[in-house]
Design brief:
alpha+beta; four-stranded antiparallel sheet; 19% helix; elongated
Amino acid sequence: MRINKYLAQATGLSRRAADMAIAAGQVSVNGRPAVAGQDVGDADRLTFNSLPVTPPRHTVTTLMLNKPAGYVVSRNGQGSKTVYDLLPAQYQALKPIGRLDKNSSGLLLLTNDGQLAYELTHPSRHKRKAYEVSLDTPLQPLHRQLISDRGIQLDDGLSRLQLARLREGDDTAWQVTMHEGRNRQIRRTFAALGYDVRRLHRTHFGPYALGNLPAGQFTQLPVQV
């Protein structure tokens, strides 16, 4: 197995972070500095920051969950239901990729694959995310143009979203597409113009599509090679 993959599976680092650790001289193999791209196995003795690396024993697992509204993406719900209440015991150690707030629903990925998490969430990867959004009042044409073209200035920067009607003649229901993922960005963008988001449902995240997966159910995804 390539050393960056081995180290990622053993420590939870992304493969990129593993490569950086190797380049920085933080990793050794059998007492010698590790070399990027070398192959290693369980018989080799690896250290990371002078500490022994336990050989990876887990199977890479990624789930796609259709998160219902009312569940928090956290292990400690502080009185609220959490997405882990929907998962069997063998999946409790998986970590969410990105977030959906408590009142939002839809596609949520959970994994123990650090590289996949990096590929989907790092800003440099520009992964597409699509949502179905319902507003309390019809979106005015000028506001649609502002959101799509000029963007809306929020306290953490400019927010620009791509909008398309979900149903002809209905200006309260929109497909919203974005390539970033700031906290509650969609809700805050519409709120800045006086709209309340009544429903926010994620349907796509990078190459993954929710499809017809029922609310509260999950499916295991193929391992990414």
